[in-house]
């Protein structure tokens, strides 16, 4: 009675081993797929090189645009109000400040306006404003 | 390629738009353009360009308005940009973006489905293995239990059988003894009568006369009783 | 023609369509290339996905890649609500990209090398931001210019700077694209002109033309990168600005 029981048991073990081996492989492959997908998810938020180059392209023109708009506004104000050259001077300075703000914002040094106006952000707002003015 | 087409077309259509178009910049640049153009390196096209009065064209690079800043072209560019971009936007919104998007969604869904199904199947197979092992263990323990039970039962049966047989044998023995006792006592009882007969015969033979029965019986029983 | 680096930016009238109040509306080579760009974008996205293959072909995967890039850009930049602008941003990106790339083909006109085109696109973006922002947030949208937590004394100054900063957006957006395309094409043309004129000088000239030729090859590669990068920057800034319209402070 003991002998045949042992025999079937041994046979079952062999099959079981093969089955569990295949299961283990499947498990490993599934885990790999899952981590790949997660890596892809993460990867899309951190596309370093492209963003770096994009930033480099942006920064130079952000500053120039600020100054340009300041000067243009100054010129328009002078033209309409006849305050030559004060409008130009003041708005050029403001434009300069806006240009610096643009650059700092592009570099992520200063919070954007959308995060800055969020209530309950007191100290960070102050520093943002300071940096913008500097 | 388009340049040649352009110039040919422009040459044909040149007189027509030049006359009605009251361009502000056209009169300024028109007088100076032929000599400048003639001296330009692009003299092969000089003649063709000089004939049609497109302002930005012949003046560019020769002191006239720089073509990208030439305001006379702004209106037409804006109109066509608006039309073409609106067309692209509509196409994108109605056809193209949903089309590409649906393909990507489909694939993402399919992959997620496949992985999900594989995981589900794996779980099922895990569960199947677990239940198989459980069943196996149960079967094993049950078989052991059954074997033990069977052994016990067999033992008990054998013991009972033996007890029964022993009891039976004992009873038969007792009955036999009783019968033997009976037979013995009967035999003993018959011994008296046989002895009486024998004694009577012997007496008859010896004496020639048959003795009284009572006398014989008394004599025998006296002899036996002694 | 080959030696004139400005010639490539000429607007050439193909035919006049209308004359509105003394302003002539003509179908020009610029308009032709706008429509070619639109046609190419539509054809690319339509025919590359004709197979609807689960395992994409090279063309299909290019189309999907561009789609996913813009979609991720928009999702990262403007959140889930930003996806309603996806057709707009994707159109902008593909239009600018294809216009830039078309400009790389010899004798083709570069639509994006004209300030009015890039400016119109930038105004379209900012206009969308302002209109959507005002429509959905009303005066709250103006909170963009009034940072909270700033002392009242310097608030006008900060607001003025914020306004100028906001107004500089379409300028930087348009001038950057325009200037990059213009400068890149002029540089290419000048160097190509060197190659041509040096090569025409004979054996010595051909030897001397090798350096400018190498420069032209390098610059062409750089220009392809710039063409893509400018479209990318244009789209990513559009996403950032749209974010302002969607979430002008809570």
Automatic annotation (TrEMBL), chain A:
This is ATP synthase protein I. It comes from Prosthecomicrobium pneumaticum. Keywords: Hydrogen ion transport, Ion transport, Membrane, Transmembrane, Transmembrane helix, Transport. A possible function for this protein is to guide the assembly of the membrane sector of the ATPase enzyme complex. GO terms for biological process: proton transmembrane transport. The keyword Cell cycle does not apply. The chain crosses the membrane at residues 55-77, 83-104. Residues 113-134 are annotated as: Disordered. The lineage of its organism: Bacteria, Pseudomonadati, Pseudomonadota, Alphaproteobacteria, Hyphomicrobiales. The keyword Transport applies. GO terms for cellular component: proton-transporting ATP synthase complex. Residues 123-134 have a biased composition (Gly residues).
UniProtKB/TrEMBL annotation, chain B:
It is a single-pass membrane protein. The keyword Coiled coil applies. Its main location: membrane. Residues 51-60 have a biased composition (Basic and acidic residues). The chain crosses the membrane at residues 74-92. One of its GO terms (molecular function) is proton-transporting ATP synthase activity, rotational mechanism. Keywords: ATP synthesis, Cell membrane, CF(0), Coiled coil, Hydrogen ion transport, Ion transport, Membrane, Transmembrane, Transmembrane helix, Transport. Residues 21-50 have a biased composition (Low complexity). Residues 118-168 form a coiled coil. InterPro entries: ATP_synth_b/b'su_bac/chlpt (IPR002146), ATP_synthase_B_chain (IPR050059). It is found in: Cell inner membrane; Cell membrane. One of its GO terms (cellular component) is proton-transporting ATP synthase complex. It holds the Pfam family ATP-synt_B. Residues 12-64 are annotated as: Disordered. Belongs to the ATPase B chain family. NCBIfam families: PRK09174.1. F-type ATPases have 2 components, F(1) - the catalytic core - and F(0) - the membrane proton channel. F(1) has five subunits: alpha(3), beta(3), gamma(1), delta(1), epsilon(1). F(0) has three main subunits: a(1), b(2) and c(10-14). The alpha and beta chains form an alternating ring which encloses part of the gamma chain. F(1) is attached to F(0) by a central stalk formed by the gamma and epsilon chains, while a peripheral stalk is formed by the delta and b chains. F(1)F(0) ATP synthase produces ATP from ADP in the presence of a proton or sodium gradient. F-type ATPases consist of two structural domains, F(1) containing the extramembraneous catalytic core and F(0) containing the membrane proton channel, linked together by a central stalk and a peripheral stalk. During catalysis, ATP synthesis in the catalytic domain of F(1) is coupled via a rotary mechanism of the central stalk subunits to proton translocation. This is ATP synthase subunit b. It comes from Prosthecomicrobium pneumaticum.
TrEMBL record, chain C:
It is a multi-pass membrane protein. The chain crosses the membrane at residues 25-47, 85-109, 115-134, 141-168, 188-217, 224-243. One of its GO terms (molecular function) is proton-transporting ATP synthase activity, rotational mechanism. Pfam families: ATP-synt_A. The keyword Cell wall biogenesis/degradation does not apply. InterPro entries: ATP_synth_F0_asu (IPR000568), ATP_synth_F0_asu_AS (IPR023011), ATP_synth_F0_asu_bact/mt (IPR045083), F0_ATP_A_sf (IPR035908). Keywords: ATP synthesis, Cell membrane, CF(0), Hydrogen ion transport, Ion transport, Membrane, Transmembrane, Transmembrane helix, Transport. Its main location: membrane. The keyword Cell membrane applies. One of its GO terms (cellular component) is plasma membrane. It is found in: Cell membrane; Membrane. HAMAP family: ATP_synth_a_bact (MF_01393). Belongs to the ATPase A chain family. Key component of the proton channel; it plays a direct role in the translocation of protons across the membrane. This is ATP synthase subunit a.
């Amino acid at each position: 009675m003991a002998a045949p029981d042992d025999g079937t048991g041994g046979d079952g073990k062999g099959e079981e081993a093969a089955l569990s081996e295949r299961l283990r492989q499947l498990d490993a492959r599934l885990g790999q797929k899952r981590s790949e997908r997660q890596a892809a998810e993460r990867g899309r938020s951190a596309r370093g090189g492209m963003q770096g180059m994009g930033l480099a392209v942006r920064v130079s023109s952000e500053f120039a645009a600020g100054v340009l708009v300041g000067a243009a506004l100054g010129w328009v104000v002078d033209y309409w109000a006849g305050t030559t050259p004060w409008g130009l001077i003041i708005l050029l300075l403001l434009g300069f400040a806006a240009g610096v703000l643009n650059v700092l914002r592009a570099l992520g040094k200063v919070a954007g306006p959308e995060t800055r106006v969020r209530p309950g952000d007191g100290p960070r707002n102050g520093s943002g404003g300071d940096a913008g003015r500097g | 390629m388009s340049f040649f087409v352009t110039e040919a077309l422009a040459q044909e259509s040149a007189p027509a738009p030049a006359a009605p178009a009251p361009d502000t910049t056209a009169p300024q640049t028109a007088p100076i353009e032929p000599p400048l153009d003639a001296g330009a390196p692009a003299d092969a096209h000089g003649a063709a360009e000089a004939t049609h009065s497109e302002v930005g064209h012949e003046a560019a690079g020769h002191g006239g308005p720089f073509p990208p800043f030439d305001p006379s072209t702004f209106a037409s560019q804006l109109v066509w940009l608006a039309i073409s971009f609106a067309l692209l936007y509509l196409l994108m919104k109605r056809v193209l973006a949903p089309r590409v998007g649906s393909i990507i969604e489909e694939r993402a869904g399919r992959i997620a489905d496949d992985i999900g199904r594989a995981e589900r199947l794996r779980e099922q197979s895990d569960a199947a293995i677990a239940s198989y092992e459980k069943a196996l263990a149960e079967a094993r323990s049950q078989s052991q239990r059954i074997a033990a039970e069977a052994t016990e039962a067999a033992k008990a049966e054998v013991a009972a059988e033996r007890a029964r047989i022993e009891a039976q044998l004992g009873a038969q023995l007792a009955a036999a003894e009783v019968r033997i006792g009976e037979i013995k006592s009967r035999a003993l009882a018959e011994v008296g009568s046989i002895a009486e007969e024998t004694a009577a015969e012997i007496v008859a033979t010896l004496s020639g006369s048959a003795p009284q029965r009572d006398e014989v019986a008394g004599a025998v029983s006296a002899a036996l009783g002694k | 023609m080959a030696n004139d680096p400005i010639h490539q930016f000429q607007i050439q009238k193909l035919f006049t369509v209308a004359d509105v109040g003394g302003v002539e509306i003509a179908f020009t080579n610029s308009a032709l290339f706008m429509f070619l760009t639109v046609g190419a974008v539509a054809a690319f996205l339509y025919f590359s996905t004709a197979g609807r293959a689960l395992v994409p072909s090279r063309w299909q995967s290019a189309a999907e890649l561009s789609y996913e890039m813009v979609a991720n850009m928009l999702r990262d930049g403007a959140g889930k609500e930003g996806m309603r602008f996806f057709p707009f941003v994707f159109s902008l990106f593909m239009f600018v990209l294809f216009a830039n790339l078309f400009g790389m083909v010899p004798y083709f006109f570069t639509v994006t090398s004209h300030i009015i085109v890039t400016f119109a696109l930038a105004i379209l973006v900012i206009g969308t931001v302002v209109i959507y922002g005002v429509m959905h947030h009303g005066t709250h949208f103006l909170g963009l210019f009034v940072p909270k937590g700033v002392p009242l004394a310097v608030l006008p100054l900060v607001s003025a700077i914020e306004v100028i900063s906001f107004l500089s957006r379409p300028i930087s957006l348009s001038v950057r694209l325009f200037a990059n395309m213009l400068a890149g094409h002029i540089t290419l043309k000048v160097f190509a002109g060197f190659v041509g004129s040096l090569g025409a000088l004979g054996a010595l000239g051909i030897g001397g033309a090798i350096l400018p030729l190498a420069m032209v090859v390098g610059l062409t590669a750089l220009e392809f990168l710039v063409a893509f990068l400018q479209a990318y920057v244009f789209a990513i800034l559009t996403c950032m600005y749209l974010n302002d319209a969607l979430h002008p402070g809570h």
